[in-house]
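Interim report, section 4.2 (structural modelling).
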Amino acid sequence: MSEEREKATATLSTRVYHRLRQDVISGALAPGSKLALEMLRERYGVGMTPLREALYRLSATLLVQAHDQRGFRVAEIGLAHFEQVVSARERLESLLLEDSIRAGDDAWAQRAARAHAALDALPMYEQAATGVLNAEWQSAHHHFHYELLSGARHFIQDMFHAILWDHSARYRNILRPEPLPEDMLKADHARLIGAVLERDVEMAVLVLRRHIRNGSSAILDVLRRSP
Amino acid sequence: MSEEREKATATLSTRVYHRLRQDVISGALAPGSKLALEMLRERYGVGMTPLREALYRLSATLLVQAHDQRGFRVAEIGLAHFEQVVSARERLESLLLEDSIRAGDDAWAQRAARAHAALDALPMYEQAATGVLNAEWQSAHHHFHYELLSGARHFIQDMFHAILWDHSARYRNILRPEPLPEDMLKADHARLIGAVLERDVEMAVLVLRRHIRNGSSAILDVLRRSP
DNA sequence: CCCCGCAAAAAATTCGAAATTAACGACCCG
DNA sequence: CGGGTCGTTAATTTCGAATTTTTTGCGGGG
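Predicted structure of the assembly:
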């Protein structure tokens, strides 16, 4: 696919950007920690130039902060910040879902349905007990939500959504909240795709808002317990 | 001010970023045009490194597009794109204004009132006939709208708003639509600050939405006439 | 004892050129 | 005559070192 070709022709700058982004989101690079250039150069095995280019690109998503003449730091996490991420996601995703349902054609609805089927078939946790998320499930989950909101193309708002999603994922990865009951998520997703296929905007938006809030509440608990 | 100090310690990368951004917004660098690195290096009198860093930062705001292994281009303009910018602005600014009025304290309301007074005192056009916008007025206009929406601090949404504002300004600068009647804008601004001081969310949001639509309609006309 | 200023060290920034990749055009072959 | 291939040229990307700036540690007043 086009992804393959893009990877083949990707510059070092772009490849480092993706690895760096992943390391910030996963928590491998801790919030607030200094991003010493020499250390990163070693870590990713590249020169100064692509490294700095990647860091500046990431700084535009607020996952890292750039300070003139004093380098880069991983963005801090905190209750106030996360509340804003959740609130912005709830608002933005509601609007995008509404637009999608109104403007999306049948091909879109089918893509969403397929994404739901794929997600539904996967187990959420590696082993039921541990509460460790299954990487495949995470990817399918992201894809499902992405397809849901992609019925109407929104150049800019899609970018905003991607940024907010990354920030959310970071909090989940770092704070490792109480795992959610798999049944509840499955039910949410089923209701979501159901409402979408019936073109029931009101229901779909309601379910999505609750889905976002439910998924955030355990993280908010952790943040409120230990600031 | 802190601005002064920041300028003093700003890196070349940051200074080039601001100049590049201004040149894209003003239209000095035409939509769709190729950003040849050698040409830009000459134009801004800097080396490759800060230039590329600035270009990547701008690419994160969608004002320029980066293509791996084939350089950078200024983003295209078009009707569909502008409609999305306007729609996103209307939605986002409504939400931010609502939050501002609810959460903003008296100090905020006073800042907004001062910004309005400063704006109201300035003439909108250089000379009434030409329809050329007064640069001072533009800056005061931006500042007024920024203050209006800054009653509640929103790290991420504020960034989104800044991006949308830049895109809007670019269309205005490039397409040079029929100038708006100065009286109408003055009336909009007066109603806005009035509603804010009375903490009338419903009225303020209504006026703001119409203000955005009114300001966009002449630009939409130009886009619809000549794609 | 703390604060200020002054080196020395460390870190970030920037440059110019080398290495890599895409774009262009002439040439050959079907 | 059209389509594809191979040089050649032009452009982008990358590196390593030089430059500039911040940080750190130390000694001398206040």
